[in-house]
Each structure stands twice: as structure tokens, then as C-alpha cells.
Design brief:
The chain is an all-alpha fold and 149 residues long. Helices cover 60% and strands 3% of the residues. The chain contains six helices and two strands.
Length: 149
């Protein structure tokens, strides 16, 4: 099973028919787990370094790098997500929709875990983050069903 959603149909390598990914397959493949893992690790470093709480307050002094560091980490992972997913594509298989969906998914998950960018800017609402992650996770694989060529 490849990293990206496979619409099924003939395989370019051996011309045998490949089954279309199921809902469960799409659920796993549309979630940008690699990007979220990298972001979560960096986010934990930032949150713990500044003692950042859910209301955006800090228990340690802000040296002026909290917000810039949060933006830099978020931006790097946001840009790296489509680059990484493009590198995982199979020849002759669609990858653009998968990449766009997973990149949007990264933003949803970064918000839902209380990313330091959203905490520091005061835009994080836990209920909204939870609902967004739930909706994205379970609705997107049902809606985005690629059709074979």
C-alpha cells in the first residue's frame, strides 16, 4: 500500500488491475501523520520552553521569540508537507488532490492540537479544534473518493 490514495485501475508497471482504496485506506492516507508528528515534536519544545498555557499566557519570560518561532515551525512544516507528499507519488497516479487534502489536514490538526502559533496569537478554541479534527478525519475520506482513470 502506497502513501497516497490510489484510485484503482490499471497499474502502470504491470497493467494488472489495482483495487481502489477503501474508506479505511483513505482515512489513513489523507491524514498527514508525518507532518503532524514533526510539528507536534517542535510544538512541544516551544510550548514547554515558554510554559505556554491553553489561554496563551506564559509562565516563563518571553524573550521575543515565542511568536516568531511558532510561525517559523508552522510555515516550514506547511511548506514541507506538499513537497514530501509529491515525492511519495507513484508514476501515472494522481497525487495533487491527495496533497491538497493532506496539507489542509495538517492545518486542521495543527490547530486541533493547540499549536503554539494559535495559542500565542489567542486564536485557539479547544472545542473548535476538536470538532474540526473530527469532521476532517471522518468526512474527508468519504467525500474525496478518486475515480480510476
Amino acid at each position: 500500500m502506497g502513501r497516497l490514495v490510489d484510485p484503482g485501475g490499471p497499474s502502470p508497471a504491470d497493467r494488472s488491475n489495482v483495487p481502489q482504496d477503501t474508506y479505511s485506506d483513505r482515512l489513513v492516507k489523507y491524514l498527514p501523520a508525518e507532518s503532524v508528528a514533526v510539528f507536534l515534536s517542535a510544538n512541544i519544545l516551544i510550548v514547554s520552553s515558554y510554559g505556554l498555557s491553553i489561554d496563551g499566557s506564559t509562565t516563563k519570560p518571553d524573550d521575543g521569540w515565542l511568536f516568531p518561532a511558532s510561525i517559523i515551525v508552522f510555515a516550514i512544516v506547511l511548506v514541507a508537507t506538499p513537497i514530501y507528499l509529491r515525492s511519495q507519488r507513484s508514476p501515472g497516479k494522481p497525487w495533487v488532490v491527495n496533497t491538497v487534502v493532506a496539507t489542509v489536514g495538517f492545518v486542521v490538526w495543527a490547530y486541533s492540537i493547540g499549536g503554539s502559533l494559535f495559542l500565542a496569537s489567542g486564536t485557539y478554541v479547544p472545542l473548535l479544534g476538536s470538532l474540526a479534527a473530527l469532521l476532517f478525519t471522518f468526512v474527508v475520506p468519504a467525500v474525496f473518493k478518486p475515480s480510476p482513470k
